[in-house]
DNA sequence: TTCGACTGCCAC
DNA sequence: AAACGTGGCAGTCGAA
């Protein structure tokens, strides 16, 4: 059962049950307590309803304020973006109003930016802003029902409607999970974080000033150079290194590490600490952590490959050292579950390469592959990654020859994606997420579009120097080569997360309710009452099996979960 | 003063 | 060892 929902912005709203065809009218009603009505339905409906709404970002957060958790939804904006992408129209406006306008041949309004504010500061809005971009005279509910029905038709007309429907479902489930995670937050011990900062940087300085340790290092660096140098300025550092007879092409750490001069260790230390201070220092702590929780702002589908992005807070790049501050509440524990070696396993599954799939049936895929690479696990790993990333430099060439010989179908899968990219074609993930088309500029340079006739001459072997067409083509080839893997890996993670979410919701709440608090590409972190740890781990294990079968059927590929039950995230 | 390009480092 | 994919973000520096 699908039910279309339009909030009225004052706590109530209108709902309409959708018949199986998505169009004909079933019951329609108006409620003054939307959260209550939805909760009733979730509780009493024979089958878990799927709520159809314009955008989870807009509709779900106010419902969560009423402690409402819903099971399933269809997020019209997210699904619209997926469908547009599939048509090669990546990036076009996706909101309900835009989809409605396209249906009616009207001017398509651009999407409005969603500004939930910076993490901890709650939005003090009197009215929920309407971001649907529908014209004011159009009935919201009627438009929603119409656009949803159209989306269902478009999905049904695709070559693999079942797969795409699964994609639409898990993308929507991800949106629910993202709102829930932002609401719950990652348990974060500000005192531990502060102590860590003080140990490394010295006492907290007054606003804007350099912490003591950094200031001292900066002084010693200037002394070592024999001139005043701001170590935060790459330009000044380049000049300073040249002046002391050690010219460097850049000031990257790995470049400096090869320079033998007493200033280098000082500088490396400075860079490390300066990074900590600027990215995850006291300012970050003040901005993003409050009441013992870090609340990042996830952007579902924010990455072309379908991975999530975050807006502010840098949630997807929390450095290892800072994870010390992520500590479970008393009598609670953290469960970190990540899918080890996810991408090569995805490659094995989607390509149907039996040799690679056999290796992917073991816990350590790379170790299994070592035999083909002179017994060297590390070389096997580089070979596999080079195949998926399109690496050609370094030692990659001989490893790729081995890959091609040993895993021909896997290599052909990624090579085909790369060729498609170089020709300006689109590639898709396993479930149908589609890469963006090349830019007009790219088409001009590589394909010679827009009048100039034949493509620029290139034979694929020339070096990058002076061959912008070849360079651009290979760059896009690497992108599409990686896209088919990364995007499918992201799908695995979404399906897995949806399965975990459903499994946790079905647990007996008597032992306390486990919460998903963090998601990072191929890793899920749960915050779990001690009494519920075993059942939560069971849910995770079951979700992996379910995900594997749902995506790949009876494959021999395994997706082993590394599950760590810890007090502190740094110990995972 | 504001803005964007650029550099560099963090995560997967 | 350092050209290999997706990103976010802070800082510098020159242009508007």
UniProtKB/TrEMBL annotation:
Keyword presence, Transferase: yes
Reactions performed catalytically: DNA(n) + a 2'-deoxyribonucleoside 5'-triphosphate = DNA(n+1) + diphosphate
GO biological process, one term: double-strand break repair
Gene3D superfamilies: 3.30.70.370, 5' to 3' exonuclease, C-terminal subdomain, Taq DNA Polymerase, Chain T, domain 4
Region (Disordered): 445-473
Keyword terms, alphabetized: DNA replication, Nucleotidyltransferase, Transferase
Name of a matching Pfam family: DNA_pol_A
Top-level EC class as recorded in UniProt: transferase
GO MF annotations in UniProt: DNA binding; DNA-directed DNA polymerase activity
UniProt EC number: 2.7.7.7
SMART domains for the chain: POLAc (SM00482)
Domain of life: Bacteria
Keyword Ribonucleoprotein: no
Residues annotated as domain DNA-directed DNA polymerase family A palm: 319-532
NCBIfam families the UniProt entry points to: PRK14975.1-1 (NF011538)
Record's protein name: DNA-directed DNA polymerase
